[in-house]
Amino acid sequence: MFSGESEFLLESQDGRKRVFRRVNERFVPQCLSQARAFGGGSVMVWGGITAAGKTPLVTVHGNLTARRYIDEILRPHVFPAIHNQGLTFMQDNASAHRARITNQFLYENNIPVLHPWPPYSPDLNPIEHLWDLLDRRVRMRQPQPQTLLQLERALHEEWDNIPQQAVQRLIGSMRRRCQAVILSRGHHTRY
C-alpha cells in the first residue's frame, strides 16, 4: 500500500484567475474578483492506494500528530487493508510517521513497513502522481469550489471517481521508476 498526504489550495498555485471579457469590460464588477491571502486556504488529505483499490480519502484537520495519525488513519484504514490483502505499507518520512508511538503501533499490529526509506531519495511514491490527477480533476469542475468546504467535498467526490485502472497504471510503473533512478544514479528522472 502506497500512502501519503497532500495539501490542496482553494485557489490555483500561481494565484491568477482567468477571466474572459470583452475589450471594454476591464473594470466591470462581474469581470473582477477580490484576491484572497494565502490562496484562500487549503485542505489537507491522506490516502492510500493498492493494486486492488483505494482507501477512503481522509481529511486532516489541523496538525497531524503521531497520535492522530494512529487513531484517524492507521487503525481505521491501514490496519484492515494490510491484513485483509497481505500487503506491505509504504509511508514517507513525515514526523508523525517516524514517531516512536507510530513505529510501536505498526510493530505491535504486525503491519509490515517498507524500510528504510532514505530521507533525501527521489520521490517514487506513485500516489504523488495521483495527487496531481486529483488536483486537475478538481480544477476542471465547473463551477470551481469557492469555499474550503466545497473544496473538501470536491476532493472526496473526485477521489471516489478516479478509475482503479489509473491507480493500477501508476503502481505498474514502479519497476520502470526504480530502474530509471538506478540508471540516473539517484538523480532526477522523467518520473
Automatic annotation (TrEMBL):
Entry superkingdom: Eukaryota
Pfam families documented for this protein: DDE_3 (PF13358)
Residues in Tc1-like transposase DDE domain copies: 40-142
A molecular function (GO) term: nucleic acid binding
Name under which the protein is recorded: Transposable element Tc3 transposase
Protein source organism: Elysia marginata
Organism placement in taxonomy: Eukaryota, Metazoa, Spiralia, Lophotrochozoa, Mollusca
